[in-house]
Amino acid sequence: MRIDVVTLFPEFFTSPLSTSLLGKAIARNIASVHLTNPRDFTTDKHHRVDDEPYGGGVGMLMKPEPLFAAVESLPVLARREVILLTPQGDRLHQNLLKELATYDQLVLICGSYEGVDERVCQHLATREISLGDFVLTCGEIPAIALINGVVRLLPGTVGKTESLKLESFESGLLDYPQYTRPQNFRGWEVPEVLLSGNHAHIAAWREQQQRQRTSDRRPDLLDRDEL
Question: Which distant-in-sequence residues (6+ apart) come within 8 Å of 61 by Cβ?
Answer without folding.
Answer: 50, 51, 52, 53, 113, 114, 115, 116, 117
